[in-house]
Amino acid sequence: MTDIRDHEIAHREFFKNALGSSAIQGLEVNFTSINFGSCDSVLGTAKAFEDLGVSAYNGAGRLFQSPDYLTLAGKIVSVKARRAALISDLISNGTFANSKVIDSNGLEKSRTPTEVLAIASAFVTTRLNAGNLPTS
Amino acid sequence: MNLINIFGELEKSDPEVYERMDTRRAALKGFASMSGKVALAVIPIALGSIVKKSYGQANNGTVLEILNYALTLEYLEAEFYQMAIARFGQIGVPAGAAQAAITTIGNHDTQHVAFLKSAITATGGTPVAKPNFDFSSGGGSTTGPFANVFLNYQTFLAVAQTFEDTGVRAYKGRAAELVKGGDLLQAALNIHSVEARHASHIRQMRKANNFADIKPWITLKTAVEHPNLLTMERKILCRLVFKLPI
Predict the structure, then answer these.
(1) Which of A10, A64, A78 minimises the CB distance to B193?
(2) What does the mean pLDDT of chain B come to?
(3) B182 touches chain A (CB under 8 A)
(4) pLDDT classification of A135: cutoffs 50, 70, 90
(5) What is the residue extent of each domain of chain B?
(6) ipTM above 0.85, yes or no
(7) What is the second-level CATH architecture of the domain B3-242?
(8) B residues 130-159 lying closer than 8 A (beta carbon) to A
(9) Within an 8 Å CB–CB cutoff, is residue B98 touching chain A?
(10) What pTM was estimated for this model as a whole?
């Protein structure tokens, strides 16, 4: 878990550096639905976040205009996917790539930014808007 | 060739996030040029295909070459796991979770082969034929350093990890060439994250069996100590997959 937190901090700082003054402000989060005294609750939420993160990067990859940024996003998403697999296995061994996240072609899900924000909004108080993102 | 050293080097690498950019960029370039040579050697590319606007920047020849490259890697993984599934007892893969996991991974890779073949055909290309693989890494002799890959669980998982980590990097390494590639890029990314999940699980299996002290992801500290990782990986890939001289 410490490794995973450190990965996320590294990713956040990386994006803040890359975005400079264009970076959005830190988010106000709402984790009241998570029971931090329950392993099931924490792991279940962690799995939801990791799976959401992977599908978000998968869905947003096509919006990149720069090959370099696309490659960097690829480096982040593979770490996320490795973590998603671990957390799934911690909940129930063998679920690292089950049919909830992988389709019958062996492809993982993608989500558009709008879909991602709709799911993420349950945990975020700050209002998020993907309206100014390109859609193709 | 010292098998243990090679896998040790692989495990200690950090190709994904935290590496020093200058080293990584040079390494990626090397990897890309290697794959270019491989393509020339073994892959009949539909050169001169009409460039379709729907693929954005990537022209159709490049897209097809990348898809065939991916198909070659998936052929490798699919055959590797199908052979293993037929030899669980011989390898010593425990019944239950371990066999189920290998089966899950193998099925995905077989699905990837089918998917990529149809994608290549739909893009107007011809899927490359499946090469003959020598999983012993013997360059066709079948007596290479991993000759016991289907007889020894430890060797089997070590080779599996190499393939999975390599698969993740291979998709990542070529994704930039598909920038603005729409659905095809997205499909490549959707396979890429599945490969990463596989890699994570295989690494967990090795750790759980005390075969290697590793994490599901590739860690930082030794990346600096082993900047030549990609060279090692390239050697393995050349020998195992494409039977080219190192």
Answers:
(1) A78
(2) 73
(3) yes
(4) confident
(5) 3-242
(6) yes
(7) Up-down Bundle (1.20)
(8) none
(9) no
(10) 0.77
